Amino acid sequence: MKSIVMAFGLVAAFAAAQVQAGGASALDDERASRKAEIEFYTTGFDGGDAKMNCVRPVIPPTSKTNEEIVKVDNEVKQWFECYNAFAQRLNDALPPGKKIPADLARIMRPEEMNRARERMNQVYGQIADEAQGTATALVAEHQAWRDSTVLFATTKNEETKRQIQAKMLEFEVAMQRQREFMNNNNNGRSNASGGPVISK
Predict the structure, then answer these.
(1) Is 181 exposed, middle or buried (0-12, 13-18, 19+ CB in 10 A)?
(2) 20 to 30 Å CA-CA from 20: which of 46, 107, 111, 128?
(3) By the 8 A CB rule, do 91 and 124 touch?
(4) How many domains does the chain have?
(5) What is the mean pLDDT of the chain?
(6) Residue 5 within a domain
(7) Within a domain: residue 174?
(8) Distance CA 38, CA 108 (A)
(9) Range of the domain at 86
(10) Is residue 115 part of a domain?
């Protein structure tokens, strides 16, 4: 009886070992078929959809028309809307490792997950630094453009004001000369007509 129990125990242990071996073999097969995906996250991760893809606007030194001013302001506004969407995507991707598909994370070894998280943390940091640098530079460039454009507009308005004043003065001088000319003509006609004729 004792020998029968022992034999049963050995059979059960062997069956369990076979199940484990079969499971390990299936896991190895799955890991092998998804090796490229694992290596992507551990060594080749580039930021995925968290990368910033906003087209930076071209800001001129100065805008001299209302159309140019509206165009530049709209393009800068659109860029910052794109930047805000990027920042939200980056925030949604944190903490590092969150974007690894669950079915892939399930078959990754602990050391692979650690390498993947380190890689993702490094890439996310680089993306964030570059985006912040671009945003800071664009803010400064936009402010310089606004200052230059306001100065141009103010100067142009002053020039226009002075031109109008000069034209008005010129017109007033011309009118004054015309009045003097008319007065002189009137006086000349009056003198030419003379006083009453006295008969001798």
Answers:
(1) exposed
(2) 111
(3) no
(4) 1
(5) 82
(6) no
(7) yes
(8) 7
(9) 29-178
(10) yes
